[in-house]
Specification:
The chain is an alpha/beta fold. The protein folds into 2 domains: 3-100 and 243-272, Leucine Dehydrogenase, chain A, domain 1 (Rossmann fold, 3-Layer(aba) Sandwich); 103-240, Rossmann fold. It is 36% helix and 22% strand. The chain contains 10 helices and 12 strands. It has a 6-stranded mixed sheet with strand order 2-1-3-5-6-4, with helices on both faces. Helix 1 links the parallel strand 1 and strand 2. It starts with a strand and ends in a 6-residue tail after the last helix. The model has no long low-confidence stretch (mean pLDDT 97). Bound molecules: NADP nicotinamide-adenine-dinucleotide phosphate (NAP). NADP nicotinamide-adenine-dinucleotide phosphate is lined by residues 102, 126-131, 150-152, 155, 191-196, 199, 201, 217-219, 241, 244-245, 248.
Length: 278
Amino acid sequence: MTDRYAVIGHPIAHSKSPSIHAAFAAQTGQDMSYEALLAPLDGFAATVAAFRAAGGRGLNITVPFKEEAWRLADSLSERARLAGAVNTFVIGGEAIAGDNTDGAGLVRDLEWLGCRLDGARVLLLGAGGAARGVVLPLLEAGVSRLFIANRTAERACALQVHFAGHDARGALGAGGWHDAAGAAYDVVINATSASLSNQAPPLPAGLYAPGSLAYDMVYGRGLTAFLGQARAQGAARVADGLGMLVEQAAEAFALWRGVRPDTAPVRAQLRAATPPLD
Ligand code: NAP
């Protein structure tokens, strides 16, 4: 019987996940289906239960249910536990295992873009769910500096405390936008939602080291205000979050099917259908 998977969210019609997973399944010869499930805002658990009762084997979880998924899972991977959010359910006969593949997706995308993270100085903008999900994978990738800057500085400082036990190198720092000044970074990652309203965080000048990369987690919006600002302030390269989307999906696919798809053709296909960054 064909194994069933889905992405669940509200709204969900815009999701690129069904086409990404269909491409992965075709490429790897997996007998599976993947659909988009719209859950009512107050009906996440019931929608998951119905999908599971119908034989569903796994789910991706997107806005606004990632925290609720974290609470619903029977077990959590360490990276999901620390992230406080779950984007992948592996549904077994007895239990639902929760994981979070967003951070691994980001790290893979940065590697794909040619970034050497071991020893890199990274500035992470934002302290919401997306930022929280990438701190541990960035620390594990060996960054020498990870400064978390946020509009509400206290939230960034709370993340520093939260991850202190995983910061053997003493890489973590935190504060408001201007607390990041006085240092240069090899990678600046925008994990705020400011780009959704085409705003850029008001960053001080001088943050971009020679050869640095500016990375905006949002995708499909062309050159965002943040990426434009980064170019003006000296970033050598800019990238959006489309690659992260594909790589986090590949990570989930590997958890479900035990086979890792080649992301290159799917990345190229999505890129061709997305506004350019120039
Ligand atoms: P969230 O939990 O709501 O957090 C929003 C963050 O953005 C907070 O740090 C908030 O600061 C900050 N912020 C909001 N408006 C701002 C503004 N006008 N100026 C400066 N900072 C502002 O959202 P999230 O779930 O972390 O998502 C953040 C972004 O990441 C979204 O755009 C999402 O699309 C993207 N994302 C992409 C991927 C991918 O696969 N590419 C995966 C996950 C998320 P305060 O704390 O001060 O409110």
